[in-house]
Amino acid sequence: MAEFVTVDRAEAGIAVLRFARPPMNLIDVQLALELADAAERIAGDAEIASVVVYGDERVFCAGDELTELARLSAEQAEAMVGDLQRALGCLARVPQPTVAAISGYALGAGLELALGADRRIIGDNAKLGLPQIRAGLIPLAGIRRLSLLIGPSRAKDLVYSGRFVEPAEAAEIGLADEVVAPDDVYTAALRWARQFTGGPARALAAAKRVFEAGTHGHDRARAEWAELFATEDRSIGTRSYLAAGPGSAEFVGR
């Protein structure tokens, strides 16, 4: 039983992956591994069409648990680094579309976690950043994703400086996809997630794998495209599209 993480069904087809480690939702190793375990369970649940990732109304995550990291020796850090990096990137391995609903701070490991989501909706009170450089560290799981998202030059500025990003800049550079009032963050995330219920789950998962392949995405797309021809959803989708146009298919997720 997880101590800090819960997975609930907000409504049919939508899972809410929520983490609460008061007061600031700092991510320690235990929380990171609990998040990864929950993400793996969601990934294997065919009844889940999309996922909302949420901290609480005040704060998504204020960063890394530095009191824990300060105690690590170099040998201990080397022993755990692979598991921790994989845990912080867990949302990218979820085949369903995911959206991070961010209120308050999304810093350090919290922003790295959110970078693995397909979409980030933030409150107009949010502050985002990767300040690990100020503690003599670097982001473990966020540099590549950030660079692909906003470009290498902007990513270097944020990582090297460790500065915070305000909502207007986050939207301008593509770090955030939507800015809403703080009280509307969760409902806006649900609204985005809702569009995928009853959708072509196999095709959505294939598209996610292509995006995750990064510079190898062109090659991955060939394989994924061809494999979709063996699915029921492809057959249903193409027939209904020809007969009645887009949006008419009733997909079955197989």
From TrEMBL:
The keyword Translocase does not apply. Keywords: Lipid metabolism, Lyase. One of its GO terms (biological process) is fatty acid beta-oxidation. One of its GO terms (molecular function) is lyase activity. The keyword Lyase applies. Gene3D superfamilies: 2-enoyl-CoA Hydratase, Chain A, domain 1. It comes from the Bacteria. InterPro entries: ClpP/crotonase-like_dom_sf, Enoyl-CoA_hydra/iso. SUPFAM superfamilies: ClpP/crotonase. Belongs to the enoyl-CoA hydratase/isomerase family. This is Enoyl-CoA hydratase. It comes from Nocardia mexicana.
